[in-house]
User: What shape does this take?
Amino acid sequence: MEEVAFFAGAIGALGGAVAVIALRNPFYSVLALVVHLVSLAGLFLILHAEFVAAAQVVVYAGAVMVLYVFVAAYVGQVEEPIWEPIPGQRWLAPLLACALFVELSIAVLGTALSSIDSEGPTVQLGFGEPSSIGTLMLEKFLVVFEAASMLLLVAAVGAIVLAGRRREENGRGAEAERAAEGA
Amino acid sequence: MSTTTYGWLVLAFPLAGSLVCAFGWRVLPGRAAGWIATGAVGLAFLNAIGALVMLLDEPTAARQLTSSLYDYASAAGLDIQLGILVDPLSVYMCLIVSGVSTLIHLYSVSYLTADRGFARYFSYLNFFVFSMLLLVLAGNFVLLIVGWAFVGFASYALISFWYRRSTATDAGMKAFVINVIGDIGLVLAAFFVFRELGTFDFLAAFDEAEGAFSVNEGVLVAICLLICVGAFAKSAQLPLHTWLPDAMEGPTPVSALIHAATMVTAGVYLIARMHPFFELAPTAADIAAFVGLATLLFAASVALVVTDLKRIIAYSTISQIGYMIVGVSIGAYAAGMFHLMTHAFFKALLFMAAGSIIGAMAGNQNIDRMSGFRKAMPFTCALLIIGCLALAGFPGMSGFFSKDEIIGFAFYRGGMYSILGVGMYIASFMTAIYAFRIGFRVTRGEPCPEAKELEGGHLAHAEPQNPATGEREDTDVGFPGPEHFIAEREMPMKVAMSVLGVLATFGGLVQIPGIDDAVEKFLAGSFEGSALFETVVPTGEEWVGLAIGGAIAIGGISLAYLFWVRRPGITARLIERFGALHTFLAHKWYWDEVLDALVYRPTIAVGRFANSVIERVVVDGLVAGTVGVVRGVGSLVREAQSGFVRAYALLLITGFAALGVYFLVASN
Amino acid sequence: MDTSWYLVLSALLFAVGAGGVLIRRSPLVILLCLELMLNAGNLALLAFARMHGNEDGQIFALVVMVVAACEVVVGLGLIVAMFRRRLPLNVDDMRELKG
Assistant: This one.
């Protein structure tokens, strides 16, 4: 039963990933990523990480992807030229990606760590539950928690700064338009 | 006060005078710099007398005293002191140098009154006196070389004193370059001495020399010849003599002091001081003697035809120093040093008289334009004649005794030294002729226009110009001042010349063979153990030699009288008949041209070659080549900085993959 | 399922994401591929957490998610700013680093 779930999730994740890099329309890529994320959430559930799975769906697939959708809609279609200016990139990139995958696989499969070949110990009840996550966050990983909050704050401020319309640049932009019209 | 303290004081006063004049040139009023400088050298002279007196108190055997002020270097095997050697030879030289210098300083105070560089002149002149005294008092090779080099610098500074005159600066550079060649010889000699004997100190080296060297051993001959190179450069002997006639570009008192009385005698002093080496290497001593002979004959012949008054006297100096070199090389140390003293007197006197005459001629130095100053400048003419008589070796004058004692010694040693004697007699004859060429031409005959003006009480005036090339000058700093001075009108010049006139006349009386040998007895303290010094010519033979010399002198003077007073046209006819010979002599035996071709041009060619080939092609090529290679490699590497972010990402992933491979392999 | 399955899957997803970053030229899609790589990392973390039997890996994964979110904010902000200034939305056109 678990295997079926695993393969389902795996295929979904893989399919979504491939679709992200293959589809021309960036909007479709975004949607493909959403599929990928939800599949991953499924895999997380199998791994007894309920809270993380929930967070994945709500935060990642929910909030972050919504951001992406908005920007994709705003920006619109990007014409990607066919011709590749960097010599060798077209075939080197897939090659290196494969090389990377092969290496990592060899590392994983050839490892001397015996426990990798097992599923892991029998987890107790409450493993991956919000309460245990919360306890850990506030006890063992308090500093990490605080740091992450700080990071979020900084990002929020940064977003506001980036998004804010600056009077000068707007004025300059308007002037440039007028100059272009006049010439 | 001990003897050596007097020695240090002799050095201290001129140095102090030089510094005062150098730093106080703005504040010293009028001629104060001149009086301070003269006083400083005068004090040096008094201290030299003090040293003399103290030295005479000691017994002859114990008259070599050293004193060290400062341990200059005292390390593995090397022991160099800042030390002086006060012994009869050095005190004798100190007396001559400081005494004649005082008189010349006195003369200069008048001579350079109108010159803008008055204080600078006296600073240099005092520095020169200090350097010469240092050279003479030095107790080891290091200090000797220091003094030697300083003297060379002082000479250069004073020759190019009128620095805006290009002929003067050229002459200064020529003198300096030739001096440096001599310096090289001397320094190499010092190194060899240190290598063979392990010490730079004179007394120690001389003591070691007997035991360390066999007679005429190769190294010793080399050392002596290198010393000779130094001596010949400084004393203007063949072939390093070409700087001295050109050095007449300097002010006349400078010519008197440096290029007649003192600096050029440094070479003679050097050979006399190094006599233990030369006595052990007779080959080198003989070579030196014959070079001296060649020089004295050559210079005397040139002095017969050159027309610039100062240059005649310059060639005379070269010739007379040739005598001194011969003297100290063949072992007539006392006679050679005695001639050094008398020559200082009469040569300085001749230059002073020449300066006065040139002043009357408003700066013109051409002897063919001078005549008949008898009535206009009686004092100068009288002293000029005294100088000429002493130079010619007229019986009874100082030059007579000193020069002919050297010749007598040469004949006494016999063998090949007789050739030296014969050559010296021939040159004496020529000396008498050219001495009275000056004497009769200037004093006798119809007064020239300048002389007529002076008889009327008015000093001739002319546009300031370079006496050699005739080009126009001004009289601001760097050129001679606007006024000219003659002895008749200036008391300091009169005093200085009178003192020298007395010394030139009666100076010979201190060493009359058989009656008193004051110089010889005094110098014995420095020449202990010298076999040649002990050799004394029997009095009878000495007087025979003196008689011959006197006869030759009178003969020469008579011939000069014939040429320039009785039958003035003879010289012109002789020049016509022997035109080629005259040209040869007038071009100074073409020495300048020979040295130009043999030394100057090859050196310049080597320099040019080094520049165009080695510098431009090899060195620059290497440097430019390296730059090119680096630039090439850089432009290759620059390809990686394409600006494409994706390319950078590719490189990143590549690196990561490579790292992964490495770790996988390593862990296996 | 053994842990190694999850790890291999994670490696595969990571490689796909890396290839996408190198191939695509639109900054938006490149950011999406970055998300892929981050999530692959998350998967690996959770697999190990399960393997060890404690939740430290899960905390780590949550923090990674936080970081990803912040990064997305900034990155998208940049893209929007670029679009507003009418700059070409093509990574290859930004070659100022050339040298």
Summary: The CA atoms of residues 34 and 109 of chain B lie 5 Å apart.
